[in-house]
Amino acid sequence: LRFDEKVRVVVFKSEVKGVFCAGADLKERTQMDDAEVGHFVKRLRNLMDEIAALPVPTIAAIDGYALGGGLELALACDLRVAASSAKMGLIETTRGLLPGAGGTQRLPRCVGIGLAKELIFTGRQIDGQQAFSMGLVNHTVPQNNEGDAAYQRALTLAKEILPQAPFAVKMGKLAINRGMEV
């Protein structure tokens, strides 16, 4: 995707109804030794960094659960759209873990330090409306019968981006991303 000039916007969605991404398989993780866990977390962090670094806008369409690494995936995207019924949270602390794929950096940039600490410390899950009110998602929509309301809204948002000058959009993303790291 990074090098395909025809790609102008990437929308991340799930094919599983009611779930955007439920995060890592913790049962599988318990079978790993420390070295394997370290390698797994490093690969996951690298994946999220690669998604964040895509030169085109990325949109997460959250039509269901986005927990742990699932929310970290959504946070790696430029824009987020959620169904009001979606459930989101960096729930790792409820499992004795820490968000390891960039959530501790990206969540505070989205919602502010105090709120990010509260959400991470408590492991609280929030719905799409709460996520919208705190600035975690750009848009929230009522879920439809097909279970893809966020995806449909994400497509509408993508269609708003498509007519804009591709180079200007890419440079705008780059300037914002680099400025946020200063």
Description:
This protein has a single domain (10-141, 163-175), classed as 2-enoyl-CoA Hydratase, Chain A, domain 1 (Alpha-Beta Complex). The protein has helices at residues 26-30, 34-52, 69-76, 103-111, 113-122, 128-133, 149-161, 166-180; strands at residues 10-12, 19-21, 58-62, 65-67, 79-83, 87-89, 126-127, 139-141. The protein has 182 residues and is an alpha/beta fold. The radius of gyration is 16 Å and the shape is globular. The mean pLDDT is 93. The strands form two sheets. A four-stranded parallel β-sheet has the order 1-3-5-8, sandwiched between helices.
Brief descriptors of the model:
2-enoyl-CoA Hydratase, Chain A, domain 1; alpha/beta; Enoyl-CoA_hydra/iso; 8 strands; 182 residues; ECHD2 protein; Enoyl-CoA_hyd/isom_CS; single chain
Radius of gyration: 16 Å
Query: Main beta sheet: strand number and arrangement?
Result: 4 strands, parallel
Contiguous helical run count: 8
What is the N-to-C order of secondary-structure elements (H for helix, E for strand)? EEHHEEHEEHHEHEHH
Broad CATH class? Alpha Beta
Stated plainly, the CATH topology is called 2-enoyl-CoA Hydratase, Chain A, domain 1
For this entry, what is the oligomeric state of its chains? single chain
Q: What best-fitting shape do the alpha-carbon axes yield? A: globular
> What is the H level of CATH, i.e. the homologous superfamily?
2-enoyl-CoA Hydratase, Chain A, domain 1
